[in-house]
Amino acid sequence: MIQAHSLLHRLLLLLLFSSFGLPYLISCDSSTYTPPFQITEQREPCENYQPLKQPFFGETHVHTSYSFDAYVYSVRNDPYAAYQFAKGQALPLPDALAISGNPQSRSTQISKPLDFTAITDHSELFGEMQICTRSPTDTAGYDSISCQQMQTEKPNPSVDEINPTNVAVIWAINPLQRPAGAAPLEFCNEDGVDCDGAAISMWQQIQDAAESNYDRSSACSFTTFVAYEYTAQPQFDNLHRNIIFRNSNVVNSPISNVTTDGPFPSVLWQLLGEQCTNAGINCDVLTIPHNANLSGSTEEEPLGRMFPDPANAYEASQRAAYEPLTEMVQHKGGSECRFDQLTQQGVQTVDELCTFAQVTQNNLNSAAPHPTIAEFPTRDMVRNALKDGMALAPQFGGVNPFKYGFVGATDSHNGTPGNTTEYNWPGHAGTNDSPYANLINGIYRTPGGLGVVWAEENARDSIFSAMRRKETYGTSGTRPILRFFGGWNYSTQRDAVGFSICNNSNLAEIGYNQGVPMGSDLPNRLSSSDKPRFILAAMKDAGSSQMPGTPLQRTQIVKGWVDSAGETHEQVYNVAGTTQVTGNEFNTSTCAVNYSVGYNELCTVWEDPDFDSTQPAFYYARVLENPTCRWSTYSCKAAGVDPYLSNSACLSAAAIANAQAVSEGQIPDGDTPFNNCCLNESNDPFMSRSIQERAWSSPIWYTPRS
Amino acid sequence: MGFFSKTLRMPALHFIFAGALLFGVQQMWDAYALKKNPPSLEEIVIKSDQIEQLKRDIKAQTGRDPNTFQIQAAISSAIDDEILYRGALNLKLDQINPGVRHRLVQIARFMETSSASASEDALYRKALDLGLDRSDPVVRRQLITNMKLIVQKVPLSQDFKKLTKEEVQLYYDQHPDLFKLPERYTLSHIYISRDRWGSKAEDEAKRRLKELQSQKIQPSDPKAGGDLFLRGNRFSTATLTVLQNFFGYNFASQIESLKPGEWQGPIPSSYGWHLVWIEEKLDPQKPALIQVMNQVKGNLLQERESLRLKEALKELRSRYQIRIESKEAVLRSDRLPHV
Fold first, then answer.
1. B1 touches chain A (CB under 8 A)
2. Residue in chain A nearest B161 by alpha carbon
3. Which candidate in A271, A386, B34, B294 could, as Cys together with A212 as Cys, close a disulfide (CB 3.0–4.6 Å)?
4. Contacts of A545 (CB under 8 A, 6+ apart)
5. Residues 6+ apart with CB under 8 A from B92
6. Which of B215, B222, B154 is closest to B190 using CA atoms?
């Protein structure tokens, strides 16, 4: 045994030194380069370094063939491929009717490359996926029933019924789904099967893919992050989090829902502390919860499970420390706020723009009943959680447990980070939602959004630091530029064309010097008569070669506050642009955008007219583009069903399209996916035939001095 | 967990074990691959009823009649499977693969009625006697997958170990476009907003240009002025792609023709008009290998893996006489796609 042991060691050392001795240990020239953030890795300084920061567009949530619920839908794009996609290369996608990965006859390409990407595969099943899909056939476990399910897409491999969704559901039960306790798939317990070791192999691949795609040269063209998804979903209630590491120093093995033995985020933070942030290995990490809208509620957590009352002050501070950001929107819907356009009721809101990207259910079980607005757990919408966080703070030593900044993301399961364009969206998970399944099950879903950070340079330390301080904004998929500063003394002086600050090239310098950027706390007031002022400047997406950017419609500031009785309130202020909808923003027949309506840029200095210095408050900016055709409208029109026809004409066209799809054998007799094309603003609580793309800045908070 | 078991769990070791396992097979593979073509080619026949079955399979799986491409792809994949299967048998993988052995023992035990206590070895021998290793579809599938992996990975893992400085350098030299930095620009611009100036924007831009030129105003001069451009007024070492993302498609296409060191324009963008001063134009550059080492290695390995499988299957196919029994000429083509 001893001998074998030392032999193994020798082999290991040999391997390490022969092929993994990384040659690029280039030192930083610190004499010319003193950034405000801590440098924790060795790399060349960036040529393009901007002390006043630049917006970098990226993806913080994307799955590849390493995720069980991507692979089973015939997705074969791995992390290497996903990074290539983010950099602009086209990728194959499985044909709508592909089986076991064949054929990969579709193709997709991002409209503009991204600046950074974190790949976040489901960590709970790394070992099983490594054994079943990435190992020699004689690996112990390879021929288990579970593996055969994954390989054949059949829930019962000896029967000829292909049903990838059922396979995914079966695979999820033990590792993801249990209300308490969690376990790997059963075959991991069989003699000789080493799921833990296999998981580490997959984790290593993920790190290698991130390393080889990270540009450590001074060009700083692309940044990757080592990351994974923590996939707790007790009885379908979504408590997922994306775990993103600052640099290449990461945990030895992902801390998953199986590691934490069930859905316990506080255990996750505890272990991340022990194994990363406090382990003395130059490791740092943050967690980003997503889809609060699907996190459900229980008797113990009636207001929502993503943002429950903290158990104690320690837990509140853990959450605040590890979780600076949350997703505002992604493929499975928006989580900002919720409003039903038929009943004109909202979840603690009267904001009509809260119909945006709302899905019908409140958890991951599409068969579950849909809660009404009155039943909907209030905190499953982020804006409400933010209000409650301020109200809760006094109970937890002044720590606001829900002090979240914002990003958007796709949650694509195609290995296609940032693939957010409406006009050519290929669905989000291989064969799961192409070509018509999108219209059947996914009509409320969206291509998802993007995360934007204001950072000095496109490199890990700079971007990670921006995420940590919440100098971020989320978009619903387009790329407008948004700056948002808060302070007390910004000049409201106007000249002939508007606010002087807004026509001053030094806007950013003024913003930082006299106040704080998005994601921060307002500085202390100098005079008791001061009211908070905000600079909100936005510029439309410059567009791509395929599609020029859509003009802006208006900018808003959303305020939430807590009164002296502890009641929470909100108010949405329109601060620039127009609330008038002309109907000429785009052509409902052709979907062509009218570039002469709307604004290229909107900028204003706004003072809160209703400020009360005794009330804690947050303020975030919302930028709205003009409406354009939604992805479903493009899909329906392509099939000859125009959602803008009268409802009866639309349903007639849908009947023809349904019949044709049946006759071509593309859908079973009786399916009517195209009827969903006729859902619209007047017959459905949330559906819209157009989409008003938007951006949300992280909030700026005001806390009264006690 | 003891240290030894901890060590066993280290990913690098998994790699070694897989490598060692594959290495044994490698030697057999070499012997097999180096064998001269036999005097008469073995024949692979795809019979017409097999093709009909493939068509039925596709229809059962997809719910519609397959098109020619789908049938061709299915036939091609059936040929590849048969080739891989025969290759596996030639290498006697059926006798050394524990998964296959496990499966055969299982079947034999299921068939064994008299002595439930028969030893594994006995059961395994019995299965071989019955020819189950040649007839069981699960075994066949296991062997095909195993062979595919060997074809794809064995030489690769050897190459990986042998990934020498010279090879990496060669790959880097042979693919200058993959790693080169495209031409880049450091520039300043003065922005004339279409929102602010409306139809007068272009005239205003021209007027400003004359003013900048006659007063010899430098980009760093606060008097340079212009409207606020939220992205900033100076961009350092930006590629044309980056400029296109920032200003729109038309803008970037006009930058290439501008002379450095003076105000030029006006150039239209998605937002308005711009007067541009190119400070520096960097020609396409080749970064030092050391700067892109990991990218080069990653690309090299990926390319090898996919090429390897394609070439191996092509080469293996040439060892067989392939006959496709079909009335449709298009299906008899010897240029079936590799899928």
1. no
2. A19
3. B294
4. B244, B249
5. B28
6. B222
Residue A348 has pLDDT above 90, yes or no: yes
Angle at A693 between CA A303 and CA A432, to 5 degrees: 70
- Helix intervals (H) in A221-363: 265-272, 313-322
**Residues with pLDDT less than 50, chain B:** 1-21, 23, 36-37, 39, 339
Interface A-B: count of C-beta contacts within 8 A: 203
Q: How far apart are CA A462 and CA B291, in angstroms?
A: 20
* A281 contacts chain B (CB < 8 A): no
In angstroms, the Cα distances linking B88 to A15, A40, A341 are 30, 50, 63
Residue B103 with chain A: CB contacts under 8 Å: 143
Is B5 within 8 Å of chain A by CB?
A: no
Residues in chain A closer than 8 A to B236 (CB atoms): 47-50
Q: How far is B186 from chain A (nearest CA, A)?
A: 9
- For residue B62, the distance in angstroms to the closest alpha carbon of chain A comes to 6
Question: Which DSSP helix (H) or strand (E) runs through B324?
Answer: strand B320-324
- Please state, in angstroms and rounded to a whole number, the distance separating the CA atoms of residues B27 and A518: 62
Peptide bond preceding B66 in cis form (omega within 30 of 0)? no
Q: How far is CA A504 from CA A181, A509, A690, B228, in A?
A: 58, 10, 35, 6
* Partner residues linked to A412 by β-bridges: A62
Q: Which residues of B touch A221 (CB under 8 A)?
A: 239
d(CA A69, CA A66): 9
Q: Give the Cα separation of B108 and B111 in Å (integer).
A: 5
Residue A5: predicted pLDDT: 40
Residue found under tokens 């080469």: B315
Q: What tens digit of pLDDT does each residue of A603-632 get?
A: 999 999 999 999 999 999 999 999 999 999
Any CB–CB contact under 8 A between B245 and chain A?
Answer: yes
C-alpha B339/C-alpha B333 separation (Å) is 15
Integer CA distances (angstroms), A406 to A253, A328, A692, A698, B21, in order: 28, 6, 18, 5, 49
pLDDT tens string A212-258: 899 998 889 999 999 999 999 999 999 999 999 999 999 999 999 99
User: How would you write A118-183 as a 3-class SS string?
Assistant: ECCCEHHHHHHHHHHHHCCCCCCCCCCHHHHHHHHCCCCCCCCCCCHHHHHHHHHHHHHHCCCCCC
Of A52, A686, A613, nearest to A343 by C-alpha is A686
Which residues, at least 6 apart from B264, have a Cβ–Cβ distance to it below 8 Å?
B258, B275, B276, B277, B278
Question: What is the rounded CA–CA span in Å between residue B320 and residue B313?
Answer: 11
How far off is chain B from A122, nearest CA to CA, in Å? 19
Tokens of B154: 């064995």
* A273 has a chain B CB within 8 A of its CB: no
Determine the Cα–Cα distance for residues A509 and A515; give it in Å rounded to an integer: 10
Q: Which two tokens stand for residue A68?
A: 């069980």
Distance CA A676, CA A687 (A): 10
Choose the closest CB to B290 out of A24, A136, A665: A24
**Residue of B192, B245, B286 to mutate, interface with A, max A Cβ within 10 Å:** B245
Backbone dihedral angles phi then psi of residue A363, each to the nearest 5 degrees: -155, -170
Contact residues, chain A, for B62 at CB < 8 Å? 97, 99, 665
User: Distances in Å between the alpha carbon of A300 and those of A234, A269, A395?
Assistant: 14, 21, 18
Q: Say yes or no for a CB contact (<8 Å) between A12 and B10.
A: yes
When CB atoms are compared, the residue of B3, B270, B290 closest to A549 is B270
Q: Does the beta carbon of B64 lie under 8 angstroms from any beta carbon of chain A?
A: yes
Mode of pairing for the β-strands spanning A472-475 and A481-487:
unpaired
Compute the C-alpha angle A315/A569/A386, nearest 5°.
30
DSSP letters spanning A556-572: EEEEEEE-TTS-EEEEE
